[in-house]
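Moderator note: this is an archived Q&A kept for reference. The question asked for a predicted structure of one protein chain; the sequence and the answer are reproduced below.
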Amino acid sequence: MNSVAARPRIKDVAEYAGVSPKTVSNVINNFEHVSDRTREAVQEAIDALGYRVNMAGRQLRQGRTGMITLAVPELDVAYFSELAKHVMTEADRRGQTVLLHQTGGVRERELAALHGFDAQFTDGVILSPLALHPRDLATRDRRLPVVLLGERPAEGSTDHVAIDNVAAAREATRHLLARGRRRIAVVGGSVRGRQGTDRLRTEGYREALKEAGVPFDADLVVPVDAYHWRDGARAAGALLDEGPRPDALLCLNDHLALGALRSLHERELHVPGDLDVVGFDDIEASRFSVPSLTTIAPDKTEIARAAVALLLDRIDESAHGPLQDHVVGHELIVRESTGG
């Protein structure tokens, strides 16, 4: 019967190198005051035996698991799947494993993530919330580090990473106004309710209209149930069929914009001839649609880098200062849907 060789241990490395187990541990942890000759002997023994550091054991001794949680609403919304890829890449670079959790935008699931699932298998949480209330953050257990992405139910509640949504929407609206568009509809917008991403982007839109002397028309702000292709198609269809036709659509994510393009195509309207269309997020599909989509591109790489760095600083207890509100850059990418 075949037997599997036991995994080499520190004491095996010590015997091979002719040193103590404590010396091997000092070399592994890169402690000072170990001679070059001893360090070389230990490294030779590690290589010869195929010894691997037991990271799980080390992390447990440090009171850490080496795992962080990323909680997002929906992975079938491309922005979140693309963002998850960037977070996982950055976490891997920092020696962390990511537990990916899909909340569905349901408050109970977001609360579970916010509190670390009442378990000891995650060192901290990066959370993109949709349904949390300000009191949820005010009453959370502060011992678990949390970084919020995107929406923030209450200012000063926890570390936060996002683009400047007001400025981004203002820039997109200015672009449409510069092209002579005046009846600009906001698909997915909101003028009432709590101050979420939809409200912030609508605020930026209204600021640009005011700057240009264009009256605000609340009928051109169209809320949606969700931010999927079908919701964009329905909202655009209603705008086209139920009143004076807009001459541009500012869609608050690319899924809505791509759905809207379908409705325009079905009504034999030309983009950008009859209407301009702008989206948000610069998902990969926006580059391959016909026409390709003008969109606001948040720096997803920087969002991931900043969120992971903030979280690990809190986990390492190296960041005891005030909570941080990290604003990440964005860019308006002009493509065919606005004549680019």
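Archived answer notes: The chain has twelve helices and twelve strands.
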